[in-house]
Amino acid sequence: MEETIKKEKKCYFCVNNLKEVDYKDAGFLRRFINSYGKILPKKRTGTCAKHQRKLAVAIKRARVMAIIPFVNK
Fold this sequence. Notes:
CATH 4.10.640.10; single chain; 4 helices
């Protein structure tokens, strides 16, 4: 049987040397949520654990401030 070799994803924030995640940048945050408005897991996005936590907090803050919707229907 053939084994598939998966390419390891790099953290977008570490690669681009970004320290903080801005909750006011809705266009940027939409990269990390799916069509239903759910936060994508780090396995799918490739972000490291530290930045995934910061990203989740930023998305939740943006939802409360009504910058991005809770649900897309």
